[in-house]
Amino acid sequence: MARDGEGGSGESLLTVLLAGSVNLLIAVLKLVAGLITGSGAMLSEAAHSVADTLTEIFLLTALRSSRRPADRTHPFGYGKARYFWSLLAAVSIFASGSMFAFYQGVTTVFGEAVDQTSPVVAYVVLAVAFTLESVSLSQAVRQTRHEAAEQDRRFRAQVRHGDDPTSTTVLFEDSAALCGVLLAFAGVGLHQLTGSSLWDGLASIAIGMLLAGVAFMLGRVNAGLLIGRQAAPDLVYAIRDTLSGAPEVDALVDLQTMLIGADSVLVCARVDFDDTLTAGDLERVCVRLAGELRELNGDVSEVFIEPVPRSDQDLRAAVLARYGGTPR
User: Fold this and answer.
1) Residue-range domain boundaries for the chain
2) Res 125 pLDDT > 90
3) Interval 164-184: pLDDT, tens
4) Where are its TM segments located (predicted)?
5) 67 CB contacts (<8 Å, ≥6 apart)?
6) CA 107 to chain centroid
7) Nearest one of 207, 178, 219, 209 to 92, comparing CA atoms
């Protein structure tokens, strides 16, 4: 099913702008609460929100950069710029959020005991933060579900195989933000109940570990997209069936796909055609098949079809080496 590229970009922009506005407001509130209460967990959560705000700035840059049209130096367009900036967003979460939370936690646990003041302020700010983060998360979930419906996938499959890292990044960071709020609440509450700042420090360390885990997951996903990940399995199988089912095709020898941006897939196919086809017939068949693949899924933007004999041993060996099985 074809996707509306402009609509998808507009929804991504809304998701990022909403998340950025929420994170900036929450960062200020958490910082004020942390300074008033002396809570390391609250200061760690403030750093968490600052990191999330920086992430939204990177994602806005990603959306803007990836919209540039193809030119002579980048004939396939600038779609992968979205993956590059999203990767930097993952790095910023680790560098500015996780490291500060770890530092705050270690200094609280092993440093001098800190008296807690006005814990009610922390509770109020955390409640407001939880509410606002829930609103931002609901928008990210809504966008992901919409994209999953357009691609006829389940929600989990869309998170795993989706080609737009902006919604996935906001989804992960907002989920982590809600978990971070609960950890900070536990740290402040246990500090108040026991009178020991140890719990506050442990909450900060837990927040640091949470952010490090989210940064690792997002970094791995975006690194794979930036290097050149194949299209989602359902699309690959649909392309395979379309090419194999053409009456002029004797065998699909090799099929390679690569995501070259959000809603943009490169398809390279090596096909053994019926030997009775003339050169003119072959040209028309290739054009028709390329059109059918684009009609099959609007994400297919570039199609290259190479006629080859399936009996070529070197080609078969190359396919076997790549996939470790019998080429179709």
Assistant:
1) 5-227, 233-323
2) yes
3) 787 788 888 889 889 999 999
4) 12-36, 83-106, 118-137, 170-190, 202-219
5) 9, 78
6) 33
7) 219
Q: What is the pTM of this model?
A: 0.78
231 or 151: which carries more pLDDT confidence?
A: 231
**What's the CATH code, domain 233-323?**
3.30.70.1350
pLDDT at 321: 80
Helix, strand, or coil here: 265? strand
Q: Which CATH superfamily is domain 5-227 in?
A: Cation efflux protein transmembrane domain (1.20.1510.10)
Is the pLDDT assigned to residue 303 strictly greater than 90?
yes
- Nearest 5°: phi and psi at 253? -80, -40
- 307 residue type, one letter: P
Nearest CA to 187 out of 82, 179, 299 is that of 179
Cβ distance 60 to 82 under 8 Å?
Answer: no
